[in-house]
């Protein structure tokens, strides 16, 4: 086999694998539309002495479908993150709610603050909109609003963030029976919380 033939064969194999992955991602539709919806609109996650999550959406019982379960895991990941940053320590909730590079980035952030002695107290208001969903993966667009203050080991303010808006594309995956945030993509485009 020549190097040119080998290159074409490898390219063909890569194309087949990519198509199989794409087809697998299309499977498992729960029958609901893919246009978004409320999905937890208006949720605020707060950490500090009292860690709570508030939502303006009305819900009854546990989240039912992949969309609702993924959004619930996403919102819970913010609550767990702020809790783990005040004081900075990796908590079991972080591993239960995050995986992949999202988990790696969050653990690194916690470890950095632990090394410096800094802590972060605040909240994240979320406005998640599901853009695609399958039985194993949900993609969410969110325009978050952060209100937080970082303190050094002596309690002096290092940085204060009031009303900081960030445009995220978030991937939430199903691992076993749990939904976990696997990737945060901070996007450059401006967004308007709604």
Notes on the protein architecture:
The protein is of the alpha+beta class and 194 residues long. It folds into two domains: 1-30; 31-187, Nuclear Transport Factor 2, Chain: A (Roll). Helices cover 34% and strands 34% of the residues. The chain contains four helices and seven strands; from the N terminus they run αββαααβββββ. The protein has helices at 3-26, 66-84, 92-97, 100-116, and strands spanning 43-47, 52-54, 119-126, 129-133, 137-151, 157-175, 178-187. Strands 1, 2, 3, 4, 5, 6 and 7 form a seven-stranded antiparallel beta sheet that branches. Strand 1 and strand 2 form a beta hairpin. The longest helix has 24 residues, at 3-26. It is globular.
Question: How would you summarize this macromolecular structure in one to three sentences?
Answer:
By secondary structure, this protein is an alpha+beta fold. It is built from 4 helices and 7 strands; from the N terminus they run H-E-E-H-H-H-E-E-E-E-E.
What's the topology here?
Layout: H1 3-26, E1 43-47, E2 52-54, H2 66-84, H3 92-97, H4 100-116, E3 119-126, E4 129-133, E5 137-151, E6 157-175, E7 178-187
Antiparallel strand pairs: 1-2, 1-3, 3-5, 4-5, 5-6, 6-7
């Amino acid at each position: 086999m020549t190097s040119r033939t080998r290159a074409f064969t490898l390219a063909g194999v890569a194309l087949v694998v990519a198509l199989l992955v794409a087809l697998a991602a299309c499977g498992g539709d729960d029958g609901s539309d893919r246009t978004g919806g409320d999905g937890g609109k208006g949720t605020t996650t707060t950490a500090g002495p009292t860690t709570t999550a508030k939502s303006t959406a009305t819900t009854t019982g546990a989240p039912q479908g992949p969309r609702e379960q993924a959004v619930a895991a996403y919102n819970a990941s913010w609550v767990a993150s702020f809790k783990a940053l005040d004081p900075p320590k990796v908590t079991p909730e972080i591993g239960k709610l995050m995986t992949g590079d999202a988990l790696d980035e969050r653990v690194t952030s916690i470890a950095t603050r632990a090394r410096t002695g800094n802590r972060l107290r605040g909240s994240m208001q979320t406005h998640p909109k599901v853009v695609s969903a399958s039985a194993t993966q949900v993609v969410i667009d969110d325009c978050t609003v952060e209100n937080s203050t970082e303190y050094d080991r002596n309690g002096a303010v290092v940085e204060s963030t009031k009303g900081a808006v960030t445009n995220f594309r978030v991937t939430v995956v199903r691992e076993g029976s749990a939904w976990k945030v696997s990737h945060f993509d901070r996007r450059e485009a401006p967004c308007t919380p709604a």
